[in-house]
Structure formats: C-alpha cells, structure tokens
Amino acid sequence: MIEYHNPTAEAGVEVLPYTLSKKIRGANKVSVGMLANGFPDSEAFLAELAEVLNEKEAGIEIHAYNKGNASIPASPEILGH
Length: 81
Description:
By secondary structure, the protein is of the alpha+beta class. It is built from 2 helices and 2 strands; from the N terminus they run E-H-E-H. The protein starts with 29 loop residues before the first strand and ends with a helix.
C-alpha cells in the first residue's frame, strides 16, 4: 500500500489581506509603472502583463523599465521616472 504525505504546513505568520490598491475602472487616465528585475524573460513577462491589463481596462498607460541585474537595486535614474 502506498501512503502519501502532504508537506503543506500551516502559515507561520498571520495572513493579512493586501490593502494597497487603486481603482482604475472608468478612470480618465491611469499610469502603471513596472520594473523588470533582470531575470531572463522578465521583460517578456511584463509585456504579457501589460497586454492583459489593457484587455481588462483600455487606456492604461504602461511604463516598463528593466534594471538589468536582479542582484542590484534599481538605479536612481529608473526610480526617478
């Protein structure tokens, strides 16, 4: 007989709902900034995400940047946009 063990454990910290949000439905103009972390395909992922966002709500202005290296913080030039 085969027995399976489920390794899922209870969360070690309290689960809190994410409360930071911005209502965009029907807004005149919404700009969304996205930062690719430099991992392979991170820019392709953001492009797909931008496409889906525009399908959900037309008129979203997407600003995408790539910091180029996942191991360093974003430069002041990128953060200044």
